[in-house]
Give the backbone structure.
Amino acid sequence: MDTHLYLGVDAQPTELGLVRRAVQTWLAAHDWPGPATDALVFAVTEAFGNSVEHAYRGLEAGRVAIDLDVAPVCGHRRVTAVVTDTGRWRDGAGRTDCRGNGLAMIRAITPGMDVTTGESGTRVTVWTDDDVAPTPP
């Protein structure tokens, strides 16, 4: 069974379903537990949606790379997902429209998350283990 999944997807809202189904199918093939699957699918689709909505605003449409890997870690398995765009980072701090909570929600439901921003784009890395239930929000 392939321990790696790579998706190169146009940063378009119409691709959200494709991303969701591909991640769900890949996790199911690895017998990933339901709650951890739900958390990771949400995290990846939210990070992808952020890239679609924010990274390329005012720019020519780009692509988003999604990499998932499963590997053994200390007697269990860990899936790491990395969502990368080459657009611009947009800080949601100070918003008054009750939006801008996506990264906080990802952080709340996954055991680990890291965000790296820079001139070359944004990278959101999330991970979950097969023996750890996600923390409820």
Q: What stands out?
A: The helical segments are 16-29, 34-55, 102-109. The chain has a mean pLDDT of 87. The two ends are 33 Å apart (CA to CA). The beta strands are 4-10, 63-73, 76-85, 112-118, 121-129.
